[in-house]
Amino acid sequence: MGMFILRRTGIMLLTALCLTFVVFYLTNLYPNLEKLAKSEGNMRMTDVQVQSWLDKNGYTQNLFIRYGEWLGVVPGFIYKHEDETVTGRCIRFSNTSETAPRFCGILQGDFGFSTTFKENVGPLIVRKLKLTGLLMLWAFLLYVPLALLLGVLAGMREGSKTDRSLSTFAIATSATPEYVSGVILIAVFSSSAFGLKWFKGTSASAMDNPGFANFTLPVLTIALFGIGYITRMTRASMAEVMTAQYIRTARLKGVSFPAIVIKHALRNALIAPFTIIMLQFNYLLTGVVITEILFNYKGFGWTLVQAAGNNDIELLLSCSIVAVFVVLVTQLISDIGYVYLNPRIRVS
Hints:
Number of strands: 4
Strand order of the largest sheet: 1-2
CATH topology of the largest domain: MetI-like fold
Number of domains: 2
Largest sheet: 2 strands, antiparallel
Helix content: 55-70%
Shape: globular
């Protein structure tokens, strides 16, 4: 198992390196850099002025050198102006170039400076992740146990009325996108149209003081979309397990139906849904964009949209790093958990 984890970790790091380079290359294409220069300087800047701004800020260096600077494995650039003043990537941490650190990339904990929010990206990302993490936690705690329960109930007796009813519900929820279910929930439960003004249609106040009134609707919006997929996967897996030979043998021996489900079928039926559940972390991190925009909840997804819309390269790169890290780590945990759930798998 130790060698398996080491190999997977190595592959994970290599994958992260390749993915971040692709994102870095795409965000640093010249049209994006030109837009950044004009947004930071003047929208009426000439091509010569744009080129001068890019030179002063190190954007005209070789792509691999700038990627190394961003990672923190190459010394940060230094630019000497005509008036003998010196600026550079790492000099913003010090008053002079002599006392400034040579390396200032993500390996040193420096994620850059946000041109949109006018603050360091690191603390900004941490703050936004906490907000989204709280939303993810409540949504996850709501729909994962409920989806597993519904899937097991539907798969226990394939073809029954319960199975058909729960399958129809699962298909309907998974086929309804968040921007539809969210609007319906707002119209029904927070407007005067139906007279059920139980919740607030916006969750802006939930960032400082989350409560039942301002936090329920975004959680329900995410949960309704995610519950259907896990329910269908669990139902399919449970129905397949219930037709296995060892289940038939247990029935012939006179084992009660609840005991068959709990002691024999449930563990094997949860192998496939476990992988899907782990992948839900990826969806929850980046899939909350629509929900956060709809309910004005300024978390990680909302910040990602702002970074993309305002061409905030450093912030966009940092958001990509977080997304890549979550995807790879959850995939590693999924692989390890799959081995433990399925004893037939042997790690060579």
